[in-house]
Write a structure and sequence with these properties.
The structure holds 3 protein chains of 3 kinds.
Chain A (H helix, E strand, L loop, with lengths): L8 H26 L14 H8 L7 E3 L5 H7 L3 H9 L33 H14 L5 E6 L6 H12 L4 E7 L2 E2 L2 E2 H4 L5 H7 L3 E6 L3 H16 L5 E6 L17 H8 L3 H11 L5 H23 L21
Parallel strand pairs in A: 1-2, 2-3, 3-7, 6-7
Antiparallel strand pairs in A: 4-5
Helix pairs in contact in A: 1-2, 1-3, 1-11, 1-12, 2-3, 2-9, 4-12
Chain B lengths: L11 E3 H15 L3 E5 L15 H5 L4 E3 L4 H13 L3 E8 H4 L3 H8 L2 H4 L9 E6 L14 H4 L6 E3 L4 H13 L4 E6 L6 E3 L13 E4 L4 E5 L3 H14 L4 E5 L2 E3 L3 H11 L2 E8 L4 H12 L9 E5 L8 H7 L3 H9 L6
Parallel strand pairs in B: 2-3, 2-4, 4-5, 5-7, 6-7, 10-11, 10-13, 13-14
Antiparallel strand pairs in B: 1-8, 6-12, 9-11
Chain C lengths: L10 E7 L6 E2 L4 E7 L2 E6 L4 E6 L6 E3 L5 E4 L60 H10 L17 H10 L20 H18 L2 E9 L1 H12 L9 H15 L5 E4 L2 E4 L5 E3 L1 E2 L5 E2 L2 E2 L7 H17 L4 H5 L3 E5 L18 E5 L3 E7 L2 E15 L5 H16 L5
Parallel strand pairs in C: 11-15, 15-16
Antiparallel strand pairs in C: 1-3, 1-6, 2-5, 3-4, 5-7, 8-18, 9-10, 11-14, 12-13, 16-18, 17-18
Helix pairs in contact in C: 1-2, 5-6, 5-8
The chains are: A alpha/beta, B alpha/beta, C alpha+beta.
Chain lengths: ~325, ~325, ~400
């Protein structure tokens, strides 16, 4: 599976656990959505866990993250605590955005999580700006910007790519190519379907990577981050992946076949990583059981936290339309 | 009457189905017409409006686009200028912002700026509105905003009949016409009058006659206003509910006539209050119906906040029946 | 339960069950296929157990949240096969409350908007009175100073009706009536009303030469017809005796128009229609007699509805000014609370007022024999300037005749 060296036991289990947390969290979200605890739109990350987990391994606290409406995996991998995420989806004031954003709009200032965004391509210009500040204030940090391959159709994508390269901004562009923009297959949307080649058109460094392999993603990300921190400008990573669930809950998937999904499921990063760990004696049954138990417990606690949460006072509806001050 | 879906032999259908039939018949009637937008073909439409149409008409008439609003709206404009009759679908008005330059600076402007040489017979359909907990970036009501722009026509079908027949009139119009379909109305079901085969896109319509107050409204605020009128009737107050139907150009005659008779007016508009279409209507009433007014004009609009996700907060942010009743009641005197 | 799969999913059709009672299921198993406007979806389950009961039928359309199936603990036997109706809730519907035809006039709770005290000479900014645009214009036309008026509009503003009422008050042939509830939508001021009634009644007695006639009417046929009519109808469609009295009077007025109209400017002006003012006692001691328009043209059912609506609105304070101005004649019926006969006082500028007393069982002579019959005393107080006793007698006889043929009402 992996051709990269030095994947220790601890790290291997860590990658596995991080992906498993996301997978089980998403399953719980699906259940709660059908029971109408979570409302509005819900976009789940099943199948793509290796991308968020692999990338986040290489980021530091001083780095920033910009995500899309499919942001659960990124938020969890970045370290946002699960309780406030669940509470956010319940609409409770203890949520990470006071219940105002819901599933598509997780925010966390402390962890420099600059939001899930519901407008495709809408986050890229933001990442540019954050990177500009990093450069200006010499923080050494970078902005990791996640988006789907559908964003490559939007003007904002091209404008952002050009500008980032032109101004040598420390941006890590992570394109999660899962082959479908809602119902739009890649080959019908892009004249150039090799997304990573678009970076070359802007003279930006970049590569394509197997997004179903967390180790491969992490390795590529390390290369990218090293280059960015060395001051070489932005880097583009096309992570080739697949989403196992529909675009959102209310999607009848008329645009793809069951067979195709099954084929991709054979490359499911979670069981494959587990199999690899087991084959290489890097995990014992007890350790595995412990991981699963801890993940279940964490999710149960998060649901309880959300259930016990409270509703924002309607009288506060207009609070933060305008800010009184800029936080330090 | 109800091909492909719905109960055969009846005129009963949903608003969604009415939209679908409108597109179907447009494609059947005019070979220059085609539908273009994101996920309209393979996916069947984000709101299932175009379900089955790709199978019926093929990819030349039902064109799926990449996520590229500025590009495909602009392309629609160009195609219209060059003799085609495109129906462009922007998934929701929230994404129309990405195409605002094309809509304002090209579609609305070129006919005038070219000295009348190039008409833009384009129809753009968009879903609009809030009430489904889709949070701030997916819950806008921008039809009032677009109604500010000269060169555009703005339609807001609030009934199934209008959903069914406004498209045809829009396609026949030589100007760029924007049609806003409220997301909450898609599931509404009703009976079409078999005698009606077309509607105008110029007039407002009195949906409920009354003598004590005029409630001017459109879109998803129409059913709320009708409900409010029933509440008010129990208190002996007969409200006249006027469905604006067209936000640009506004039907002054119907609006002025109604308010001149009732002498009191409540405007219900899902846009944010400041600078909204309700503000425009209130200004016109103050200008032209001033001496008939027996009470100040009242407006029920969305609170001026980005629409929040949590159910109770969203409800507080959007216009509700109780607020309409309260506004009307407050116009008739000391309590 | 029927799951919510989307923000705008309201219902779904259960197309196919993929399990049956007794099937063992675990988390993630697909148990059914549901069709929605977006397409077909497989429904998977989040529990382990055994299917105890399938509550929804294939082909059934159900709202989100409706019960689809019951799951028992693993290994549990399914419930005995009985066609379980799909229930959203299982409480039996409460038995419909027994509804009686409302006794006239139905008691309603007092309107909560207490007495409205109109501001005197309301001041806006900088001491200016608030006057609505149309009120100001009308005041100009009528030569009235609007700033001197009491405003009953919002913020104490002077409104059109304030100006028009002020103008009509200063006209010679005044139509006082009790205080118009258009001025006080939420309620009435009992003291003011009493004063208004006192003023009107004094004026009436002062100026109108009243004469009085009365007759006793056998209500057997009318009440019998009523009972048969009502027996076949649900409570909300039943008629009160008042409807028959109103109709009989209205039809009699058609033949005797000198009792339907106004005495103004020294002569009689017949009413343009037969709009009967129906006296309604209000809780708290007020009395108003707003009009039911065109009583001669209403069917009994339509008249009952109009009556119910009017009384309801009168109690809630929702009577319009026009309804107060309109009556061409007034009827007061004390119903079963009052005395056996009523001698009314005419509301100027009307020229007649009919009174109906309580229906009582009394001895009556039929074919030379004494029998007990339901009788009502009908009385007429009329303006001697507009009519005389002979005409009055004929008028009352006409009412009696109509009540003997209730099927023609």
């Amino acid at each position: 599976m992996s051709d990269k060296p030095h994947l220790g036991r601890e790290h291997g289990q860590h990658l596995y656990r991080q992906m498993l947390r996301i997978r089980h969290f998403e399953a719980k979200c699906a259940e709660l959505y059908q029971a109408q605890k979570i409302r509005g739109f819900l976009h789940l990350y099943d199948g793509e866990e290796a991308v968020a987990v692999g990338i986040m391994e290489t980021l530091e606290d001083r780095d920033s993250v910009v995500a899309t409406y499919r942001d659960h995996g990124h938020a969890l991998a970045r370290g946002l605590p699960m309780g406030p995420l669940m509470a956010e989806m319940y609409g409770k004031v203890e949520g990470c955005a006071r219940g105002r954003g819901g599933s598509m709009h997780f925010f966390d200032r402390e962890r420099r999580f600059f939001g899930g965004n519901a407008i495709v391509g809408g986050g890229l210009p933001l990442a540019l700006g954050i990177a500009m500040a990093d450069k200006e204030f010499e923080t050494g940090g970078l902005a990791a910007c996640f988006f789907g391959e559908g964003a490559a159709g939007e003007g904002e994508f091209h404008e952002s790519m050009n500008l980032a390269q032109l101004w040598e901004l420390p941006v890590l562009f992570v394109c999660e190519n899962n082959l479908y923009a809602m119902g739009m297959p890649l080959e019908l949307a892009e004249a150039e379907t090799e997304i990573s080649r678009k970076a070359a058109a802007y003279r930006m460094a970049g590569e394509a990577v197997d997004g179903m392999n967390p180790v491969a993603v992490e390795s590529a990300a390390r290369r990218a981050v090293e280059a960015i921190r060395a001051g070489n400008g932005p880097y583009f990573l096309e992570c080739r992946t697949y989403r196992f669930r529909p675009h959102s809950m209310f999607d009848a998937q008329l645009y793809r076949t069951r067979d195709e999904i099954e084929v991709w499921k054979e490359r499911d990063p979670i069981p494959r990583t587990l199999a690899w760990l087991q084959e290489n004696a890097m995990i014992t049954p007890d350790e595995l059981a412990a991981i699963e138990a801890e993940v279940e417990a964490e999710i149960e606690d998060a649901v309880a936290f959300a259930e016990n949460g409270t509703w924002e006072d309607v009288a506060d509806l207009e609070k933060f339309v305008l800010m009184d001050e800029v936080q330090a | 009457m109800n091909e492909q879906t719905g109960t055969p032999g009846t005129n009963r259908m949903t608003y969604r189905e009415a939209c679908r039939q409108a597109i179907r018949h447009a494609l059947i009637d005019d070979s220059r017409t085609f539908l273009m937008g994101e996920d309209v073909g393979l996916y069947g439409g984000c709101y299932a409006v175009s379900k089955g149409l790709l199978q019926e008409f093929g990819p030349g008439r039902i064109r799926d686009t990449p996520l590229a609003e500025a590009a495909f709206v602009g392309a629609g404009i160009g195609a219209a200028m060059a003799g085609m009759r495109p129906i462009v679908e922007i998934m929701t008005c929230n994404f129309s912002l990405l195409a605002l330059d094309q809509i304002m600076n090209n579609a609305a402007t070129i006919p005038h700026m070219s000295g009348g040489q190039f008409a833009v017979p384009l129809v753009i359909r968009m879903a609009t509105g809030g009430g489904r907990q889709l949070a701030a970036q997916h819950s806008h009501s921008l039809e009032g905003w677009f109604a500010h722009i000269p060169g555009l026509k703005v339609l807001v079908p609030g009934t199934i009949e209008d959903a069914r027949f406004m498209l045809k009139a829009a396609l026949a119009d030589p100007n760029p016409v924007l049609i806003f379909e409220h997301i909450v109305l898609y599931n509404e079901e009703g009976e079409l009058d078999p005698e009606v085969e077309e509607v105008d896109i110029a007039k407002a319509r009195v949906r409920r006659p009354g003598s004590d107050v005029s409630i001017l409204t459109y879109g998803n605020s129409l059913p709320k206003s009708l409900e409010a009128a029933e509440e008010l009737a129990k208190e002996g107050m007969e409200a006249e509910v006027v469905d604006l139907r067209v936000l640009r150009p506004l039907d002054n005659a119907t609006i002025f006539d109604s308010v001149s008779r009732t002498r009191r007016c409540v405007i219900v508009d899902e846009g944010w209050k400041s600078g909204s279409i309700s503000a425009e209507i209130a200004a016109r009433l103050a200008e032209d119906v001033f001496f008939e007014l027996d009470a100040p004009i009242r407006r029920v609009c969305s609170r001026e906040v980005p629409v929040p996700y949590a159910a109770h907060m969203e409800e507080a942010a959007l216009p509700q029946v109780g607020q309409i009743v309260e506004a009307a009641r407050g116009l008739v005197g000391a309590r | 339960m029927m799951p919510s799969l989307g923000a705008d999913m309201e219902s779904g059709k259960l197309v196919k069950w993929l399990v049956e009672p007794g099937s063992t299921v675990k988390k993630g198993d697909v148990i059914a296929v549901v069709e929605t406007h977006k397409g077909a979806f497989e429904i998977d389950i989040f529990q382990e157990g055994t299917i105890a009961e399938l509550c929804a039928k294939e082909g059934e359309e159900l709202p989100v949240g409706a019960l689809l199936a019951r799951i028992g603990a693993p290994g549990e036997k399914p419930a005995k096969a009985e066609p379980a109706p799909p229930t959203v809730e299982e409480k039996p519907a409460p038995p419909p409350p027994a509804v009686e035809p409302p006794a006239p006039p139905a008691e309603k709770p007092e309107p909560t908007g207490s007495k409205a005290v109109p501001a005197k000479a309301p001041a806006g900014r900088a001491g200016r009175a608030k006057i609505s645009p149309v009120a100001r214009r009308r005041a100009g036309e009528l030569g009235i100073d609007p700033a001197a008026l009491e405003g009953t509009g919002i913020d104490g503003s002077v409104t059109l009706v304030d100006v028009e009422l002020a103008a009509s008050r200063s006209r010679p042939a005044e139509r006082p009536g009790p205080t118009s509830s258009e001025k006080r939508r939420a309620g009435f001021d009992p003291d003011q009303m009493r004063q208004a009634i006192a003023a009107a009644m004094s004026k009436s007695k002062r100026e109108i030469p009243h004469y009085y006639l009365s007759t006793t009417i056998d209500m057997t046929r009318a009440l019998g017809w009523l009972e048969a009519y009502n027996r076949e109808r649900p409570p909300e469609k039943r008629l009160l005796p008042a409807v028959l009295l109103l109709r009989a009077t209205a039809l009699a007025l058609k033949a005797h128009p000198q009792f339907n109209g106004f005495w103004e400017d020294g002569s009689f002006h017949p009413g343009e229609g037969i709009h009967v003012g129906w006296a309604i006692a209000l809780r708290g001691g007020g009395l108003i007699a707003p009009a039911i328009r065109d009583v001669d043209m209403l069917s009994p059912g339509g008249l009952m509805e109009a009556l119910r609506d009017l009384v309801g609105r009168a109690r809630a304070g929702g009577i319009k000014g026009s309804e107060m101005m309109d009556p061409t004649v007034t009827i007061t019926s004390l119903g079963d609370r009052g005395a056996e006969s009523v001698l009314g006082v005419i509301y100027p500028p009307q020229v007649a007022i009919l009174g109906f007393g309580k229906v009582v069982e009394r001895p009556w002579v039929v074919d030379g024999k004494i029998v007990a019959r339901p009788l009502v005393a009908a009385s007429l107080a009329a303006d001697h300037r507009a009519s005389d006793g002979h005409a009055g007698g004929l008028f009352l006889s006409a009412i009696d005749r109509h009540l003997q043929e209730p099927e023609t009402l």
